[in-house]
Amino acid sequence: MSDEGVVIVVIAVFLNSLGIGSLLGLGVDQSRWQNTRY
Q: Where is the chain membrane-spanning (predicted)?
């Protein structure tokens, strides 16, 4: 289970970095990313 947790976290961070994490419901901090970039 720990391995799956790590994979999920890595994927979530990766998607957030691409700005599409919000589409999958993983981008909880997407608004913060938007404010930082713009």
A: 6-28
Secondary structure of the chain in the HEC alphabet? CHHHHHHHHHHHHHHHHHCCHHHHCCCCCHHHHHHHHC
Locate the domains of the chain by residue range. Answer: 2-37
Contact 17, 32 (CB under 8 A): no
> For residue range 9-25, what is the model confidence (pLDDT) as tens digits?
888 777 677 766 555 55
Q: Checking phi first, is residue 11 left (phi over 0); if not, alpha (psi -120 to 50) or beta?
A: alpha
0.85 exceeded by pTM: no
